[in-house]
Structures are given as structure tokens and as C-alpha cells.
Amino acid sequence: MRVVTLSAPDDVDGWRDAARGLLADHVAPDAVVWQVGDAATDLFAATAAGPPPAPRHDAAAPAMRVPRAFLDLANNAALHQDPERFALLYAMLWRLRATPRLTDDHADPLVRRIETLAKSVRRDIHKMRAFVRFRSVSDDAGERYVAWFEPEHHIVRANAAFFVNRFASMRWSILTPEVSLHWDGAALQEGPAAERGDAPEGDPIEEVWKTYYASIFNPARVKVGTMLREMPRKYWKNMPETALVPQLLATAQARESGMIDKARARESTVGDNARAAWEALRDEASACTRCHLYKPATQTVFGEGPVDATMMFVGEQPGDQEDLAGQPFVGPAGQVFDRALAAAGITRAETYVTNAVKHFKFEPRGKRRIHAKPDAGEIEACRWWTEQEQMLLRPKVTVALGATAARSLFGKVMTIGRERGRELRLPDGGAAWITVHPSYLLRLPDEAARASEYERFVEDLRMAHAALG
Ligand code: URA
């Protein structure tokens, strides 16, 4: 029996090195016990009866190529609190030798179990990014921000780079029951585990979060179930804005009726807050795992444009070029869109442009990636982000480019032929127009039809623009 001792519960590098060595030595999973420090983590090996270890490996044999998909899965799953995680991952690595495409077999019980671990870890990483709340304290060197967070898994170190990038110019500490992180504006240091009482209680910075939260709370779309799913109650005690929820719910109806007027009378200070809130939202979306589309895509392609734009355009989803560039509508459809905007007298730089689905969905064909239409579940999963963009911007006019955008904005199937050419109302009361997607124009085989449809498209944009008044 081999005993592998890892230095910490998130010692993924240690696991990887040990796993490589074991594999090279042909040590079967049943013959390995994994532990962290002195504690055995490996209930799996202790309970699983298996064949004796295989003979030692021939040193001249080539090293196994580990598929990228497995490494991605392992990097997350290894941070789970499940004591069997390291053994399970090694068992999967072992099987990959004979079945290199094992990661694609989502029906396989081991693959499924590891995928579930990885998903739970990704969610925890996302929750930490979304729910850490800093309180300010003063020390000899000036202002410092301290937050308390209780993760479910061993994710704190893995999340450190995110907080360093996001709050690079602040001095901050994040205290957790496993480890503390301290950033002094130049270097990151680790400290020991902390207790809740080590972090300060509420202070004025909570007002920032409360203002942000109240400004993105849409009284016209109160869905308590969804709210609880996105912001589980266990996080509430450390989040100042949750104190607002009962009051916001209670006054939702009254606020709804005043919302549109209020949006139009926004003050400039709110504009600054809105930019900061938008940046926070974009950063959060960059780690989105709300549906499976994030897996093969290069990155989240979030909306782009000024947060005080009065006109917002919503497309379907990023295409191949947008996926690589990280910006919406920069490929062939984007060129048609830009030309039509100019013809309608609209300056793109003054508009906000986004997509209903924020990851590129495609089917690989040889070296090419062929656009695949997002399905209802994917549109619904991503709708959350578009709603947040809408709530932050509160544009005077929103234009849905194509059926997917219309479905996302209206929450139901809309027929373009029937609905285009007139002003519609979104569920939150905002004005909306529906027109075709620019790529529809690119697909028309007949040149005359293409020219006349293009003119209709420009006319739709002109009408929507005129509705700004
Ligand atoms: N099509 C879209 O809907 N959006 C883009 O960003 C590009 C193409």
C-alpha cells in the first residue's frame, strides 16, 4: 500500500505530482491511501477491495498525455471537501489510460460523481466572488478592508488572484475558518484560520453594497425562489444588503409604479455607482457556470458600451470571432450591424450592445467551430445576466435583434414578423422593439431580397432610435 501525504486540503499540485508518479509506477488506485497532513482523506481506498498493485513501470515507456478536459475537472474537483476526492480523481486518471475519452462519458458513474464535485466547487468559487463583503477598519497604515467568509470547499487560495485583481489598490484581508488572506497593495500573505469574531461588524462600507443592491433590485420581477437560489440564506448573515430584502419585497409594488420615472431621472452620482456595479457584474459573469456553454467557450462575452446609454441592443450569442475577442458584434454580423446603425443615424459608441446568451455555442467541424442555436434552457440560464444589465442601465429603448433576444427579453416566444415595426413593452415597463438579426441578412441567398431586407432592418433601427425622442 502506498501512502501519499499532501501538504494541505487544496494541494492540487501535490496530488498531480503524486498521481503522475504513481501512474508511472503502475500503482493501481486500490493500492493508494491519500491523506492530508496526518489525517486520512481516503475512505474510498480503505473500503474498496481491488486487485494487487501492478508490476513496476518500464521507465522507458512514454509518459501518458492527460486530456485537458480532465485537468480542468481535476483542478476544481480536488478542492471539494469530500474526503474521497483525491482517490476518485486518481481512479479516473487510471482509467483514462485505457479510455482517453472517458471525460466525454457523462453517464459513467465515476465521471458523473467527479463532475458533480467540480460543479459544486465552481459554484462555491462564484459565491465567494459574489458574496464577500468588506467592512472598513483603520490601522496605523490607514484604511483597511476586512471580510469574513465561510466557504463550503477548499477554495480560498484558488480565489485569491481574483480578489487581488479586483481590489488591487485596496488593503484588505479575507478571513475564513481555514486560512486568511492579507493583501497590502503589493503582496499577498497567508495567515492562519480565523473565527467570525475576528472580523469587524457592520460599518459605512455596507452602504455601498446596500446602494448597489437596492439599485439592481427589480421590484417588477420579484421571484423569491430565484432570489434564494442565487443568494442562499446561509450567506445572508454576512451580507449587509440582505437586511433590505424584507423591506424591498414589502414595498415592491409601490416601487414598481415609480420605477420608470425614477430611472429616467437618474442622478449623475448614481451613474458612477452604476459603472462600478456594472464592472462588478461583468467580473462575476466572467466566471459564469449557469449552464454548460462556458465549458468549450473561450470566455464570457459580456455587454459593451456606456452604462448611461439610452439605447440597448441585444443579439443572440457571440460568434466565433466574438468568442476570441471577448467583445460582442465584432465579426461579420457585427459589420452588417455597424453599417445599418450608421445608415439609421445611430452612433454605436453611444449604445450598449450585448447578447442574450453570453457564451459561444458551437459544434466543432474539423478546425472550424460552427454556430449552434442556443436552446430554451440556455437562454433562460443566461437571462439572469441580461436582466441585470437591463436593471443597471435602464435604457429608454431596448432593441431585440432576432428571436433569441426577443425570447430572452420578453420571457416568451415572440414572432418577429408580427411584432416588428411597433413599440412594445418589456415586462419591466421599458420600451422595446424587435427586428431581425443581422446574420439573417447575411444568410439570404437572393441579392435583391438581401437589399430590401437590409433596408427594412435599417428602417426598424431608425424607428427605434426615433422613439428616444
Ligand atoms: N451574433 C450575435 O448575436 N452576437 C454577436 O456578438 C455576434 C454575432
From TrEMBL:
Pfam families: DUF4130, UDG
Keywords on record: 4Fe-4S, DNA damage, DNA repair, Hydrolase, Iron, Iron-sulfur, Metal-binding
InterPro entries: DNA_repair_put (IPR023875), DUF4130 (IPR025404), UDG_Type-4/5 (IPR051536), Ura-DNA_glyco_family4 (IPR005273), Uracil-DNA_glycosylase-like (IPR005122), Uracil-DNA_glycosylase-like_sf (IPR036895)
The UniProt record lists the keyword Transmembrane: no
Domain of life according to the entry: Bacteria
Keyword DNA repair tagged: yes
Domain Uracil-DNA glycosylase-like residues, every copy: 302-462
Protein name in the entry: Type-4 uracil-DNA glycosylase
